[in-house]
Design goal:
It is a single chain. By secondary structure, the protein is mainly alpha-helical. The protein is built from 10 helices and no strands. Helix 9 packs antiparallel against helix 10. The longest helix is centred in the first third of the chain and has 30 residues. The relative contact order is 0.07. The model has no long low-confidence stretch (mean pLDDT 93).
């Protein structure tokens, strides 16, 4: 019974969901480089009449991998539209075993909370993003930098900023952000002895 369910129901549903996601992803990808992206983002979210968008994929193909990824894209799309409440709603409900995508969701949550002025929540999510998938050095170092910079400039927590910049320098020295850490530490009165 289970094998039949998997072969004749689950697998075709996954394939249909992945096909539907392809067009919405295209709109989303094009929006990231467009000079006026709002209309493309709305097409990615709501569809274009012939193709469904992320919101419909989530409801029509519930339980599929594509529906789960559509939720991440929906959260990012709302963030791009400056609708932080909806961005947070979709990103908080997103969960995956993919460390890359989960770290991405945490970073986007940090961005959304920062935009709302909820700086402690933003700091927590930036740190989560930085620590969740350290193998992705570029994205992890960027999230750690954002956490440190937020702690220093917005929360006036120099002690935490110093700790985060030191961690950035130590854990990600080969990244752009890691190589800049000494400059920020010097501004905080911490000079390298190397």
């Amino acid at each position: 019974g289970y094998l039949g369910y998997k072969k004749y129901y689950k697998q075709p549903k996954e394939e249909k969901a992945a096909d539907a996601l392809f067009k919405a992803e295209g709109y989303h990808r094009n929006a990231l480089t467009a000079p006026n992206p709002d209309s493309l983002i709305k097409l990615a979210l709501n569809g274009d009449g012939a193709n469904v968008g992320f919101l419909r994929i989530m409801s029509k193909y519930k339980g599929t991998d594509a529906a789960n990824i559509a939720q991440l894209y929906a959260g990012e799309s709302y963030l791009l539209l400056n609708d932080n409440a909806n961005a947070i709603k979709y990103l908080k409900d997103f969960s995956t075993s993919s460390k890359f995508f989960q770290a991405r969701a945490y970073k986007l949550l940090g961005d959304a909370y920062a935009d709302q002025g909820k700086l402690k929540d933003a700091l927590d999510y930036y740190k989560k993003a930085a620590h969740h998938f350290k193998e992705d050095a570029e994205n992890s170092s960027e999230a750690l930098f954002l956490a440190a910079y937020l702690a220093q400039t917005k929360l006036n927590n120099n002690k935490e900023a110093i700790e985060l910049f030191k961690e950035l320098k130590q854990d990600f020295p080969a990244t752009q952000r890691g190589s800049e850490a000494d400059k920020y530490l010097a501004r905080l009165g911490v000079y390298s002895t190397e």
